[in-house]
């Protein structure tokens, strides 16, 4: 007490960087100590001083505090198991580290270093990546270290290296404001990179002459805002770009002087392009020839043409060719090296670039060096004080090959850090088998509920965003500091620390006598200094950049050599490229069809993509109920005509099967996909589904040069999934705790899907006293051939706390197999539904669920809940920040409101702006329900 008043917890603000996509937004993290003395993150806002976002944040970034606050589901201490099949038991760090080092050392001694592999993540910090890379290549001598960046960016890397001689985009974010023509290729930037999309929207608002071209098989929100949407057939991007370049050649729209002085190989490419007339290319793509010509004209005649591309190009067995064909449009017209022009690969993860910089992949060495180059190996060996010949001389196993080798027993042990391959890898049935067969699996993770954690023999608790220090590099080559706002909970430790402690133990056992110690750096800053020393003289030279500069000057782009006045925003401005002769390279890029063609047995093309408010496998974003509001349930989207031909109805369960596996999803009808194509979001995992998600059916074919897998296209069939028993259950409460209790039940069902829902905004204030996560709902939909066992139902009852009580009404009809149960709270005019369970031979209960989720008081007798109530069509939430529904927006549009008026009256689009593209679509099509 001080003067009769309790001391208030001190609030703090920490400047850091968002942990979601590769935009690399700066954030201000607010924190304080709670009543128990634990430091908690209380809020996050955009950093106005950060040059990536200038204070903007998307819906995901705005809710980072909510994702970080609860410890439910966090791994708080190491766990080990002695033999496969036994349960893991908690241990202290000393035993965990000693055991992991001992097991790895024995495998290396028996089978050699290549019997060990590491599988990392683009969410690790650069310093984390650096230690792992040094451990694998420098200490153990294996190149079997790859990352989930292989699944998203390796074709972009290969394309840049083949064309320019070095990795890294030649562009910067300022180009978004300067571009006069923007070509989106395989990028739904409105969803995947919404903060950059806001900058593009503002630039076009300032200059209505700016034109957008979108090449995408699906009419996404990005495509709907385009001046020209090229709805190409899946996988035909190379044909499109070749056809555009053919037209540019024919019309004399090339920069011949630039081609002659600064490039090589154009003659061979020109020979190939003879075949790709606009008409033939348009037929391959399934678009109008005039649209292809228009795209070529706009691009070639533009004062500044910028292309933005992402997974739609990269996740393909022909991803390198797709990247090259697009880059070559820029080279031939000299649309690069000046403001607003250039081929810009947008990275999907916050530090995919940093991982590439430190060489944290199987096909590269530190600082963009090549493993197969003896001179490069000698340079790194000297810098790391290694004996000559220590480093591996050939590339290691890339992601798909790595898990194939684990499956075939060629690799005995795998260390997985900060990623979830049992969900994100292609053909995950085979990946699960590989993890089950492995001799030793180490999982380094912060969340216990991921699909990969059950396979861990050693589970190592890692700190996560808000608790870590280091750096990340975003899509424009800008390095930003990540700072810890709070202490890590329990025994969680930084990823670099865990890797270093194991490495030191391995070093004591495996290193040659008299060898220089490799792991003396004991802080992120010292690790960064080691990393930057390796870059000196390289294309990504950051010899002039250290933590002090980042503290003083803020985030900086590379290259930033020691003698530079500052960072370099754009590369290749002078036409000098990073090849031996300084010339960029053209490469023939013939069009090749997608690897897996449709057939009578598998007649549909399945494509995948992102939801607006979720990210990757939802281990973080899935902790926030508000982020489910826009797309609350998993679904397969199908064109209405395709559904009618198969007698399929919206909302019913369908089975999607490929040559590799199958999954069940609810059906959603949408004319955003073309006939013959179906779409499913990539995010839904075993945390929320009875299956592992869309990668049950994806194929593991890889690009020959980038070794990136084909994750975007698969041939499938879709048919009705008939089940004899259905269940709908919902509960208001601590949704993260309930989710954790329900997860073991999901796999036992023919179909099961979990989703979270916020309490209706007008009632949220009344729920604040119930605790941080109490003001939310969890919903389970399940189906099976026959009713689930009494034991299964007992676990469900315990998790939902829906057993009979004074505030619970129940109706049973054993003969018909019906069970209805509704839990209530409050009384009289304030009586509201608190939980429900509906099971029987047919789906039901949606009307009661709608009443529950609305938060409105129940009108009439409680027993009326058991009567046959008609469920109204779902009113989708468009704005997750303000929880504004589509019906409210349409009502205002009907009164003549435009987007600006919607923002003023309803507040939608006025916070993060992620919903603005959908608001524009609704305003343009007011009569379409």
From TrEMBL:
<dbReference type="Pfam" id="PF01568">
    <property type="entry name" value="Molydop_binding"/>
</dbReference>
<dbReference type="InterPro" id="IPR006657">
    <property type="entry name" value="MoPterin_dinucl-bd_dom"/>
</dbReference>
<comment type="similarity">
    <text>Belongs to the prokaryotic molybdopterin-containing oxidoreductase family. NasA/NapA/NarB subfamily.</text>
</comment>
<dbReference type="InterPro" id="IPR006963">
    <property type="entry name" value="Mopterin_OxRdtase_4Fe-4S_dom"/>
</dbReference>
<protein>
    <submittedName>
        <fullName>Molybdopterin-dependent oxidoreductase</fullName>
    </submittedName>
</protein>
<dbReference type="InterPro" id="IPR007419">
    <property type="entry name" value="BFD-like_2Fe2S-bd_dom"/>
</dbReference>
<dbReference type="Pfam" id="PF04324">
    <property type="entry name" value="Fer2_BFD"/>
</dbReference>
<dbReference type="InterPro" id="IPR009010">
    <property type="entry name" value="Asp_de-COase-like_dom_sf"/>
</dbReference>
<keyword id="KW-0534">Nitrate assimilation</keyword>
<dbReference type="InterPro" id="IPR027467">
    <property type="entry name" value="MopterinOxRdtase_cofactor_BS"/>
</dbReference>
<keyword id="KW-0411">Iron-sulfur</keyword>
<dbReference type="Pfam" id="PF04879">
    <property type="entry name" value="Molybdop_Fe4S4"/>
</dbReference>
<keyword id="KW-0408">Iron</keyword>
<keyword id="KW-0479">Metal-binding</keyword>
<feature type="domain" description="4Fe-4S Mo/W bis-MGD-type">
    <location>
        <begin position="11"/>
        <end position="72"/>
    </location>
</feature>
<dbReference type="InterPro" id="IPR006656">
    <property type="entry name" value="Mopterin_OxRdtase"/>
</dbReference>
<keyword id="KW-0004">4Fe-4S</keyword>
<dbReference type="InterPro" id="IPR050123">
    <property type="entry name" value="Prok_molybdopt-oxidoreductase"/>
</dbReference>
<dbReference type="Pfam" id="PF00384">
    <property type="entry name" value="Molybdopterin"/>
</dbReference>
<dbReference type="InterPro" id="IPR041957">
    <property type="entry name" value="CT_Nitrate-R-NapA-like"/>
</dbReference>
<dbReference type="InterPro" id="IPR041854">
    <property type="entry name" value="BFD-like_2Fe2S-bd_dom_sf"/>
</dbReference>
<keyword id="KW-0500">Molybdenum</keyword>
<keyword id="KW-0560">Oxidoreductase</keyword>
